[in-house]
Amino acid sequence: xxxxxxxxxxxxxxxxxxxxxxxxxxxxxxxxxxxxxxxxxxxxxxxxxxxxxxxxxxxxxxxxxxxxxxxxxxxxxxxxxxxxxxxxxxxxxxxxxxxxxxxxxxxxxxxxxxxxxxxxxxxxxxxxxxxxxxxxxxxxxxxxxxxxxxxxxxxxxxxxxxxxxxxxxxxxxxxxxxxxxxxxxxxxxxxxxxxxxxxxxxxxxxxxxxxxxxxxxxxxxxxxxxxxxxxxxxxxxxxxxxxxxxxxxxxxxxxxxxxxxxxxxxxxxxxxxxxxxxxxxxxxxxxxxxxxxxxxxxxxxxxxxxxxxxxxxxxxxxxxxxxxxxxxxxxxxxxxxxxxxxxxxxxxxxxxxxxxxxxxxxxxxxxxxxxxxxxxxxxxxxxxxxxxxxxxxxxxxxxxxxxxxxxxxxxxxxxxxxxxxxxxxxxxxxxxxxxxxxxxxxxxxxxxxxxxxxxxxxxxxxxxxxxxxxxxxxxxxxxxxxxxxxxxxxxxxxxxxxxxxxxxxxxxxxxxxxxxxxxxxxxxxxxxxxxxxxxxxxxxxxxxxxxxxxxxxxxxxxxxxxxxxxxxxxxxxxxxxxxxxxxxxxxxxxxxxxxxxxxxxxxxxxxxxxxxxxxxxxxxxxxxxxxxxxxxxxxxxxxxxxxxxxxxxxxxxxxxxxxxxxxxxxxxxxxxxxxxxxxxxxxxxxxxxxxxxxxxxxxxxxxxxxxxxxxxxxxxxxxxxxxxxxxxxxxxxxxxxxxxxxxxxxxxxxxxxxxxxxxxxxxxxxxxxxxxxxxxxxxxxxxxxxxxxxxxxxxxxxxxxxxxxxxxxxxxxxxxxxxxxxxxxxxxxxxxxxxxxxxxxxxxxxxxxxxxxxxxx
Length: 857
Known about the structure:
This protein is of the alpha/beta class. The chain has 5 domains: 4-140 and 286-349, FAD/NAD(P)-binding domain (3-Layer(bba) Sandwich), CATH 3.50.50.60; 160-283, FAD/NAD(P)-binding domain (3-Layer(bba) Sandwich), CATH 3.50.50.60; 524-588, no CATH class; 594-664 and 829-857, 2-Layer Sandwich (Alpha-Beta Plaits), CATH 3.30.70; 671-827, 2-Layer Sandwich (Sulfite Reductase Hemoprotein, domain 1). It has a 6-stranded mixed sheet. Strands 11-18-12-13-14 form a 5-stranded parallel sheet, with helices on one face. The protein has a 5-stranded antiparallel sheet with strand order 24-25-28-27-26. The longest helix is centred in the C-terminal third of the chain and has 18 residues, at 764-781. It is globular. Mean pLDDT is 85; it is low at 57-84, 446-451 and 844-857.
């Protein structure tokens, strides 16, 4: 029997998912499938656009202005999107369509459907017949009517962006690189994600929200206030209760410094203006229903469909996703989309002719600007007999509330801490009986009988972004998938916003029954190169690779650069080659590019080195003079016994360095930081060793050394430990008669760990050498960002003693020699050269802007 012709209009998450579900039910034997996609790419995960904006395009230094840069528009045989730097967001790359016998017309828009002739007409002039048609045109950014929004009838004013597509995102990244101040109109999920991404791009960002509450669709006033504090802590200015009435444009003569006609600010309804040179509009979305209207389908808020997702006008036309209105509801989240596509596929293939969609109960798990959020059902009680259980801890950014009606969960909101979300979603979706102790809804209490991971139903949705259930994960494991990474790759669980990764791990580990294989990729030093750190180091030395680009060219799996791998490779190369390392600016983060520590408001912290905390009146006068000259807003004594000048503008950094005339204290970057000391034998009556002299000697010898993570050291003159040497990465404690204990792997931050004694040595000189031996071994063996307090327990203190103290493997001489090479190669970045390496190195991309007056809450 000849296959029928199935045409799908829309290659987004709904259209492509519908085709996947149809193929899964054997639809490839029933239909010849053709997809039209208005965008010139394969299907990608829109939820991941915020990741593209905040990470892949960020200060790590990506290349190119977008995935299609420099290529022709893509068709069926066009450029494979796997060649893009954004490949991680693709759900179905170009090859998927060919492998599944699907014809894709990418970059082609369908403009009309002739329902009676059963043909679709596209903007490339083609006419395509169909037997069955699926419309999945999704939604579009809503641009509110306001002065200055549009340059003409079809073109936005330069500097105005939506945040809906991959092209929107890459255009924003390109624009942000040469502009300073952004205003995001809309304080919902998309607005906060856009603000977070632009802040990561180095911009000054203001969020403007007309309602008094951020994410007002999901959060009540108290939760919204807690989220606001978390957002503002990222250096983002939030202005609520403000309605934007217009966009200001640069004057025609360009005297205000901006190109004529481009964005110069926003104007509020009260007449106030706020200067900016970029505006992102996230004031909502609207269903794309134009095709339905011109084709004679019933359209109200969206295309009206029945319980089988068929148009109410034509049994051969289906619609799915955000362009659909079902029983009066239009859904803008992903989870209902997955439910709709499953019913549609059951019906159109005949796999289950009675399948019906009855609507979705809205439960969402999100990560907004790095903050976990979950919301389902009611935000607050609506009846007198509704129960409300609430817990707030604003200091930690935690808010939890549940609403119970007649013993059933009808609403829940979680912010900042979502460990109970799996059980709550189950209780909300399935009406599970609730524990009598309602506190168990918010906290896992000892002896709690409420559902755990093992009790989740197979159809419990674990990953909302990609529609993955617990049953999908378990089935994948039982089918022979051996590692967590493989399960995530095959099911796509955890590949969206990432908020479900912990739950995915628990389910997979339970399903594997303890037999989960180690993910080999977890042993690689960087994602792009399938080698452990020692293997990679050996290859780099053997081949003489002295730049990050050279390593990618010779050792990466496909010869392409990977943004996530650049910084760790740069660190490793500097460790290996010292002065012979070939520096490439896009392999550095902002702190390393300007040799200062960026602060939340976009200014910088300058920390001159004061070895061992010992300074002089002349140094103090010089620091005071510099602080006065450059209007430094704060002078702070740091925990490492140094003086921190906070609030220095980027453009002033070279002048501040020159006027100080002091070396860098390395309060930034992944490197040797400082050595904290007590006064030791010079003044303290308890002193057993000259901790000050040894501390200064340690700092002067190992200053600024490149490292997988930061290194903090201390020297204590006696076991009273006043300088906290026992909880530092490396600590030295005097124990009398010229003897010193060398501690390694300590921590006193978010992780608290007393260091292990590596050895007791008989002189300060031996302590100095052993500290260097350990640090060199750590530099060569530790994973990227692996602190010593993780490295030491992983290797084991007994193993470290055997290698570094007893020299069991005969490596100590080589470690000491390579450490000496690094010490000899050191050059202070502040004193070596103050001339900008690039024209924009010290351009002040984060100017001081007076914060707007926020109405009292």
